[in-house]
Each structure stands twice: as C-alpha cells, then as structure tokens.
Amino acid sequence: MQRLVLKELPRYECLVEASKQFPDLEPAACEAFMHLIRASEEVMRVMNAHFAAHNITQGRFLVMMLLLEKTGDCPRPTTPAELADLASVSRATVTGLLDSLERDGFVRRVPDPTDRRQMSVSLTPKGQSFMHDILPDHFRLLTRLMGNLSDNEQKTLSRLLTKVSMQAASLSNGGGTTPA
Amino acid sequence: MQRLVLKELPRYECLVEASKQFPDLEPAACEAFMHLIRASEEVMRVMNAHFAAHNITQGRFLVMMLLLEKTGDCPRPTTPAELADLASVSRATVTGLLDSLERDGFVRRVPDPTDRRQMSVSLTPKGQSFMHDILPDHFRLLTRLMGNLSDNEQKTLSRLLTKVSMQAASLSNGGGTTPA
DNA sequence: CATTTTTAGTAAGGCGGCTAATTATTAGCC
DNA sequence: GGCTAATAATTAGCCGCCTTACTAAAAATG
User: CATH number of the domain that B67 lies in?
Assistant: First the structure.
C-alpha cells in the first residue's frame, strides 16, 4: 500500500523558478525533502512486493519482528501496549494487527497472571519459523537496496537522516508548526 | 495517516550482534534503510499535522499541487490519466481523490471536446487561492525540517537518495527480488 | 474506601490504495 | 461503412493501516 509520490521530481531549475513566485521556497531544502519522500516510497514499494510474495504485510511484519526472539539486549515487547509504544501507533491499531496474526496462527495471546488487565503476546513456533524463513531474503534485499552506496556513503546517509529525524521530532514536540 | 515505524532504532552494536544470527544482515545497509524509513515517516508526520491544520490531506494536496498553475516549463497534467501517471497510482485512485476535491469545490471536471472519453481537470479559483494561502507555510515548514542540515549536506542527501531511488527502481523493473 | 489511572478491546470512521468489470468512445484496418 | 481492439473514466468490492472515543475491568493512589 503505497502513497502518492511524484514520478519525476522537478528539476532544480524549476524549483529556482518557482521560488520567484513563492519566496518561502528554498530550492535545496525542497529538493532534499522530495528526494527523501520519493526514495522511501520507492524502497518500500520494493519491500512490499517482497512481503506480498511471502503473504505478509508491512504492519504484520513489523509486529512479528518486534516479537522475535533476539540475541543481545535489544528490547522485546510482551504486551500490546509495549508493541504500540515501540511502533508509535495506537493500541487499537495493534489490536487489529494481533487479531489478524493470531487468526493465522503466528502469535499467541495469553492473559497475564500478575495483572489481569494485560495480555502477554508472543510468537508461536509457526510465527518463529516463518520469520526465520523470510529474514535471510529480507536482509539480502535491503542490502541490495543500499547496494549503490559505498559503506561510507551508507554511514553518511544514516548520519544525515538522523539529523532530519531529530529536527522533525523537535518540530513535533515543540508544536510550533507555523510561527505565522 | 502514518505507518508503523520503530520508535527507537536498534543500536549499531545490536545489528552487529544480530548479524551473527542472520549472516545475510549487513549492519550498515540495515541501519541506513531503517534511518531512511524512520526519517521519512517522521517528516511526513509533521507535514500531515500541518495539512490537517489546513483541513487537507496528503493525497488531495499532491493532486492540487500537480494541477497548480506554475511558472516555467514544468509539466502540468490536465486529465485523470495524466494525474495518475505523474503520481504513480491507478486512475481509480485519482477518480476517488478528484471526487472528493470536486465535492469540496477545489477542482472542476469538464468533458474534453476533442476526445469524449476524456475529462479535463483544473483547479477552481477556490482551489487556486487555497493553495496560494497554504503554500508559504508549507514551504517554510519543509525548509525548517531540513534546517538541521547545511546547504551542502542537503545537496549530499539529495545525491545519496537519488542513488537509492535508482537502485530501487532497477530492482522493481529487473523483477529480481530474490536470486534464491 | 473513594477516586483516578491504566489495560485491551470495540465501534465508528477515515485515507489511500488496489483489481476487475463496465460503459462509452476512439483508432485503425479492411 | 463495419468491425475489432484499445482506451478513458468510473464503479464495485476489497484491503491495510490508521485514528478517536468509549467501555468494562483491574490496578494504583491518597
């Protein structure tokens, strides 16, 4: 399920031209923004085709990924609320995803004995083996998606994107979307 | 309308650890991928809040943006099929968006006199002035979103993301999602 | 103990897709 | 002119992934 994105981004000269009509338009920033949105959509288009080939969707995949037994000290959620928090969505959304995954036998929900409001969520053996089946391909694919970039470029990209994320987060929390 | 994304990305050391369990996992590529998805979602979260404050949604905004009178020689679509092509979605999707925009008085559809299969689509004066009202804020916001980056970093980001897009496009067309 | 907070889930609604089918029209060929 | 194939926009039906408001029950708080 993709979002609308421009097939061809405007050339830089077009942006400069448009900035005469719209003085608030900053060409380099606008271009970077559009490239960010387009690249992510294109990458997700490829990933979603891969998911579809394995009869899984993005949302379900992420939930299962979060529930997957992992080595090391990475946080692993066990309740719907934790899943919702880690995935930055509402609990209602998680309920829907878990309903669907449980129906298909990938996850199991059991009431928590220590707090009866809570459910404890885990992957079933079927869910575990499903993930172990598709993850090699998944990782290979995303390595190929980044394959045009050198190791150094990948690191640079991550660094720059972290800066963008932080700025977006501060604009979200600062609430100041428009100084008017 | 946002998609699930990890709130906190795994630390690089976690990825290295996981690559022992999953040998196909390449830590730098994986990290760059996750940063790409997260940054774009965070940025779009901010943009969507801005759209919501103006009672417009992303899809409708893009359609209106495509229809907007622009200086210079930027392509401007006039039929639903052209809109669909430029936005990389199906014509059925465009029909839905146009229905909604027409209902609200932002666009007008008239049958094309030269080919009676076609409709000609344009912004109404209401649509034009709506866009002229919100675009200054819109451009200011995306400039701020990229504000953490120097001009040079913005250019670098665009360049790297172009590389990613091209790779994604070639994987899409090549059809070789998994060499297996 | 009374009140407030928290949990998972439900209901209702929305956005933005998609495919397949349909209807009317056009293009190209004989 | 008649016919076939292609095309345009739309409709119907479905999907994925959200959201908010609300509920009942349980837990926390003072």
Answer: 1.10.10.10
